Here is the input.
Amino acid sequence: MHIKLDSLNHFFSDEKKVLNNINFEDECKSLAIIGPSGGGKSTLLRILGGLLYPSSGDFYFNQNRIDFKEHNEWHKKIGFVFQSNGLFPHLTGLQNIILPLTEVFNFTILDATKKANELLERFGLLEDAHKYPHQLSGGQCQRIAIARAVIVNPELLLLDEPTSALDPEYTSEVLDMINELTVEGQNIIVVTHEMGFARLACERVMFLYNGNIVEYNCSEHFFNNPQSTELTSFLAKILEWN
Ligand SMILES: Nc1ncnc2c1ncn2[C@@H]1O[C@H](COP(=O)(O)OP(=O)(O)O)[C@@H](O)[C@H]1O
Ligand SMILES: [Mg+2]
Here is the structure.
């Protein structure tokens, strides 16, 4: 994927810029965004996903400018996964997964179910699919939520701290699934605090600090040679007990 951000600014009130005139351009398959709380990670991700209009500036995906006013077209091309899985509690896993196909893409229930079953089988979720969210573990729910996001074959999958709300024992099964998707060629941008995942599974890493991209590099160099004092001290804090 080719990503270009051109003078991107965002502020919720006049006092403080949450994204501070971001200019960025690169081509990659998988990008991790890391940084301290309040640095603007979720705001940037929501803008990229068309869930929030920037105060000013432009976003180009594969050389096409995303028209934020035509966000419905863009929504059809992306998948979004949040920290909390956002599954409908009154629907089974399968019913949750087929919803975007039947509601947005006009699939029949039969065709949608067939497509969903292929995906569920691929990710070892078939047995869980007929259960309701409250009958599933946090890890299973998040994997169903990821399946729901990718069933529409999105050009870009955005994930905002997909493992932060999970009990630690479920983190790896969710990261494994995201990694499998990237290996298969899914474009992803993930906000994460899982440094091992950013390092090993993502091609590029971005450090967002106070609304600025303070560092950006291929993952190996990013972690081996942090350039700024901000990133150095952030990594020292995060990795202290790892
Ligand atoms: N809807 C909102 N209204 C007002 N301020 C917000 C809103 N969302 C986020 N902010 C503020 O924007 C800043 C960046 O938030 P966010 O993008 O969520 O950061 P991060 O995801 O890196 O923790 C924070 O100071 C936060 O309080
Ligand atoms: Mg956030």
